[in-house]
Automatic annotation (TrEMBL):
GO molecular function: carbohydrate binding
Pfam family, one: Lectin_C
The protein's name in its UniProt record: C-type lectin domain-containing protein
Xref: SUPFAM superfamilies: C-type lectin-like (SSF56436)
Domain of life: Eukaryota
Residues annotated as domain C-type lectin: 55-167
Gene3D superfamilies the record matches: Mannose-Binding Protein A, subunit A
UniProt keyword terms in alphabetical order: Disulfide bond, Lectin
Length: 172
């Protein structure tokens, strides 16, 4: 009986999730102005069909295509998000788990050797792989590369097309 109840609860949960997704799609189709859509998106804070994954106060989405660092940055902005900013060991270990080469929101394009996050803050804690960053003026964008090591970062030429990871804050 206990198992039966558990199954019932799971079924109800599943139906609820599917219903909410369909409902959201319906409302989005009704709201044609982009501003209303943006507000609604923040309100729901969870995108059913877009594979956002939650960790602490943020949602993360790994891209399914490859783009340059700048195009990746733009893609995240269009989604009301930004390229991932790593400021905890938890986030660092989390991003390695995708086991993919991924652009993150780190660049030293402005001043070589001064690494900044896409929100303008200086990088303080870093997880560079041994010998990195080694690109000087030719490698100005940060990526997750050596994901089997905690220190997985590499600097790479920004024009190379790679997968990327967006981050969206849920609470302010
Ligand atoms: Ca550089
Ligand atoms: Ca490098």
């Amino acid at each position: 009986i206990l198992l039966g109840l558990l199954c019932l609860f799971l079924l109800i949960g599943f139906i609820t999730v599917v219903f909410l997704c369909e409902y959201k799609k319906y409302v989005i189709s009704m709201l044609k102005t982009s501003q209303a859509m943006f507000l609604f998106d923040i309100g729901m804070s969870y995108n059913c069909r877009e594979n956002w994954v939650a960790l602490s106060d943020s949602l993360y989405q790994v891209s399914s295509e490859k783009k340059s660092w700048e195009e990746s940055r733009q893609d995240c902005l269009q989604k009301g998000a930004h390229l991932m900013i790593i400021n905890s060991r938890e986030e660092q270990n989390f991003v390695n788990q995708f086991k993919k080469y991924l652009w993150i929101g780190l660049t030293d394009s402005e001043t070589d050797g001064i690494w900044k996050w896409v929100d303008g803050t200086r990088m303080t804690t870093s997880y560079w792989n041994r010998g990195e960053p080694n690109g000087g003026r030719t490698e100005n964008c940060g990526e997750i590369r050596f994901y089997d090591s905690e220190n997985s970062w590499n600097d790479a030429p920004c024009s190379i097309e790679k997968f990327w990871i967006c981050e969206k804050r849920v609470s302010p």
